[in-house]
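Whether sequence alone determines local backbone shape is best considered at the level of individual chains. The sequence in question and its structure tokens are set out directly beneath this paragraph.

***
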Amino acid sequence: INAITLERYYDKETLVAVYDSGLTVAWCVHKEFSILWTAQNPESTWGCAISSATNMIATSANSHDIYTLSAAPGASRPSSVVSDTSHRGAPQFQGEYRTFQGHGDNVPCVAFSASGKYLASASIDGTFRIWSLESRECV
């Protein structure tokens, strides 16, 4: 595991972990401990963040990219379908993926603003960026 974050996601306490293999796993930790879903990035995944304001998750990777995952329009809340801590058999994330590009090197850190309007990222090239989630542009 390269990074974890714990925050409210669809009104449930949720832990997100990202792995060197590129795997992202979201666990519900509200009353029980069960996997909500998994997602696979093409590269090693370094950072993760949850926005309670928008129910969006961000991950960052060795590909120099940032990915956001948001529930499909009209989708219901995620449901717990796996009751153990293994990710085998867990459902794949269903929703919208967005890619944010602009860093020149690996991106180990991401964070959402409290409002959920912005996403910050930091690269090992010594730069940070603030992205508008609405326009997908660096501000």
Q: What stands out?
A: The chain has a mean pLDDT of 88. The chain has no helices and eleven strands.
